[in-house]
Amino acid sequence: MSEHFRQILSSILEGLNATIWAALGGIALTVVLSFVAGLALLSPVRLVRFVSRLYVEIFRGTSEVVQLFWLFFVLPALVGFKLVPLFAGILVLGLNHGAYGAEIVRGAVNSVPRAQYEGAVALNLTSAQRMFRVLLPQAVVEMLPPFNNLFIQLLKSTALLSFISAGEITERGELLRPVFGSEIVTIYGIELVLYLLLAVVITMIMRALERGGARRLGRTPVKRNRRGKALETAGR
């Protein structure tokens, strides 16, 4: 291992902590906003639906980079208060991806079979009980695959924080270019591998949640032998 490679790797890894925190913070905020806005889109109250739809369309229909610049550069000029770069990045990541997540939540709840809703009504459950005891537990399992994609997209969007000097791995790599210009393949190669590894970790966690959620709903996949013959019945 060359001395240059060790220096480049060490420098880029210094930004790994910021990337991970940005991704985790963004994911946490995305989940909260997705459920709040997504359920609000299903509200019987027109004003609640309007406010939620306004949020979704604004953040889904405008550039994430421009949103970042507004929060970090324009907002301080308007209110005289500047956010910490990493915190500003987490806010933008959460607000932007939460708008996409809201549609995932809305679609998943609407995909629950109508019979489940009618059965809950027949049991004389309240609206809140129908949602949180019957519809949402089933809908969450349907949300997990699209949320997996959304979280990976959010992870890749953490690279945008380099525009505001948040100290994540993309910025660390860009700072190395003037010094190690001849090692550009190494710099970007390391960044690609790090993003890939983080994406794989997210996918593994989400796949585990998918399997756990499916088992809770009695959707355990049928196990088969080498000839394709079923060994057990799913859900037993």
Describe what this molecule looks like in 3D.
The protein is an all-alpha fold. Helix content is 75%, strand content 0%. α1 (3-13) packs antiparallel against α8, α6 (114-122) runs antiparallel to α7 and α7 packs antiparallel against α9 (184-216).
Concise structural overview:
By secondary structure, this protein is mainly α.
What's the structural blueprint in terms of helices and strands?
Blueprint: H1 3-13, H2 16-40, H3 46-61, H4 64-79, H5 85-111, H6 114-122, H7 127-157, H8 169-176, H9 184-216
Which features characterize this protein?
flat; 0% strand; 236 residues; disordered C terminus
In terms of quaternary structure, the protein is single chain
CA radius of gyration: 22 Å
SSE run: HHHHHHHHH
Number of DSSP strand runs: 0
β-sheet strand percentage: under 5%
Mean residue pLDDT: 87
Instruction: Supply the helix-strand structural class.
Output: mainly alpha
Share of helix among residues? over 70%
